[in-house]
Specification:
5-stranded mixed sheet; binds beta-D-fructofuranose; mainly beta; globular; single chain
């Protein structure tokens, strides 16, 4: 039965969503049908198709009572819009259906596991949010919340676990046929932990163990975990709030964390290495799925909580997902590449080899805002250039800049002049690993974003831009001299 609240959301999106012209959206990045989008939810395969749900407030371009929006895709680039899947229509989720995951049940139905948020009054009279985990089961279109909800609450927490910060279950079916979920929690020391739960049927859950804990080292609360095997390692992803900067690896605010390790004999997680997932300005709360062909594919919310207040006036949608990325472990680090499906959307190649860059130059056929371009640079001997820049989405007023300084091995992304008159975080620098002085940047543009994949996916950096679409120019600039190869494809979807 569709509740009046869900029906209201569905009616609203059906009425107003189609008014948004395609040209006002990215060509291949997922956006909300209308209104606000944050975290990816339930990114999973169901009946051979990939479903993507998302944190959704259809009624405005601001965060509000959370619904789940719903999309599906066969190629990670074309997204079919489905009606909203969940609304905050029960006492236990009246303050929002927060993030969660999805899995296919053996009987062919689809299970959604999400955080139900309710408010209660403290003895002092303050309103406080309580978070529990809830289940809805459906057929890929309509979902019924189960009578046992909430299926996990305060009594299922380990000692000292917070019932206020207990959210974002990511669920999967294990090879043993059981269901598992990782859930973010706050511990007694005020910082985050990732809890592992198990269930035989997807509805009755039990606490297994704490997989890892923040201990106030990498941010505070750990949100939106994911946990999977990859390239002989165990990978735990989470998105910390209140991160304090660590070198150029982690910046203040909301970050992304990849904890790489292995499974201990008792089934626990042993952390070996820590790194950022994305080094740009806008990436948070990623989730992965295991595609039928064995690829582990990750998608993130291409936004940041620090900058969501800054948006174009009267925009009818806000928030978009990153390009889905194939992830792997390379030399003990998380590597990411755009999904290979993107390559089949490439138009004719525009190729320039051995271009001498000294000062600023543009190249025939190199311009545009929906494209896939690889730029490779190499010095002409030791110290031949001080810096190199790629200027994107450029016109007289606008300019989005990637700058590389070889003596520091630092790549900087700068969207100060990318269409927003707000003094938000507009630049970020990070260390890259040049190979013998060479650097390779694969740059994906899709109208309102730039995603950079460094050295065949060693690192990724994402940023939203708001530059008007007429700003199409791309130029290359160096102080000193270097040699460059460029290969560019317009993307046709
Ligand atoms: C992360 C997050 C989640 C929560 C959701 C609410 O971006 O804060 O922890 O479930 O957003 O919309």
């Amino acid at each position: 039965m569709t509740s009046p609240k869900l029906q209201q959301a569905r009616d609203f999106e059906a009425r107003y969503g189609p008014h948004i012209p395609d040209a006002e959206r990215p060509a291949f990045h997922a956006t909300p049908t209308i209104g606000w989008m944050n975290d990816p939810n339930g990114f999973s395969v169901y009946k051979g198709e990939c479903h993507l749900f998302y944190q959704y407030h259809p009624f405005s371009n601001e965060w509000g009572p959370m619904h789940w929006g719903h999309l599906k895709t066969r190629d990670f680039l074309h997204w079919q819009r489905l009606p909203a899947a969940l609304a905050p229509d029960e006492a236990y989720d009246a303050a929002g259906c927060f993030s969660g995951g999805a899995a296919e049940l053996p009987d062919g139905r689809q299970l959604l596991m999400y955080t139900g948020v309710q408010r209660e009054r403290t003895p002092e009279g303050f309103l406080q949010e309580i978070q529990t985990q809830c289940i809805a089961i459906g057929d890929g279109l309509d979902y019924e919340k189960v009578g046992q909800n909430p299926v996990l609450d305060a009594k299922d927490l380990p000692e000292g676990g917070s019932r206020i910060d207990f959210r974002d279950p990511k669920v999967w079916r294990g090879e043993d046929g059981a269901y598992y979920a990782v859930i973010g929690n706050r511990t007694r020391d005020g910082s985050g932990a990732i809890l592992l739960y198990q269930s035989a049927d997807g509805c009755r859950w039990r606490f297994v163990r704490t997989l890892d804990a923040c201990q106030n080292q990498y941010g505070r609360m750990w949100e939106c975990p994911d946990y999977f095997a990859l390239g002989g390692k165990q990978v735990l992803l989470t998105s910390p709030q209140e991160m304090t900067p660590i070198g150029l690896e982690f910046h203040a605010g909301n970050g992304t964390l990849c904890l790489m390790g292995h499974t201990a004999p008792d089934g626990g997680f042993v952390r070996e290495r820590v790194q950022a997932v994305d080094y740009g300005l806008d990436f948070y709360a990623p989730q992965t799925l295991l595609a039928p062909d064995g690829r582990r594919i990750m998608i993130g919310w291409m936004q940041n909580w620090s900058t969501v207040g800054a948006k174009p006036d009267h925009c009818r949608w806000f928030g978009q997902m990153s390009l889905p990325r194939e992830i792997s472990v390379q030399n003990g680090r998380l590597a990411q590449q755009p999904v290979r499906e993107l390559e089949s959307c490439r138009g004719p190649a525009v190729v320039h080899h051995h271009i001498l860059v000294s000062g600023e130059t543009n190249l025939p056929g190199i311009a545009g805002r929906v494209l896939d371009m690889t730029v490779q640079i190499r010095p002409m001997g030791q110290g031949s250039y001080r810096w190199f820049r790629v200027h994107l989405a450029k016109d007289g007023e606008h300019d989005t800049i990637l700058r590389y300084k070889p003596d520091e091995s630092v790549l900087k992304i700068d969207r100060t002049r990318s269409g927003l008159p707000h003094d938000i975080v507009n630049t970020r620098s990070f260390l890259v690993r040049p190979r013998g002085g060479e650097l390779k940047l694969r740059i994906i543009l899709d109208r309102f974003s730039v995603e950079v994949f460094v050295n065949d996916g060693e690192q990724a950096a994402s940023a939203v831009i708001y530059t008007r679409q007429e700003a199409q120019a791309i130029t290359f600039e160096a102080e000193g001299q270097l040699l460059m190869d460029v290969e560019k494809y317009d993307l046709v979807l």
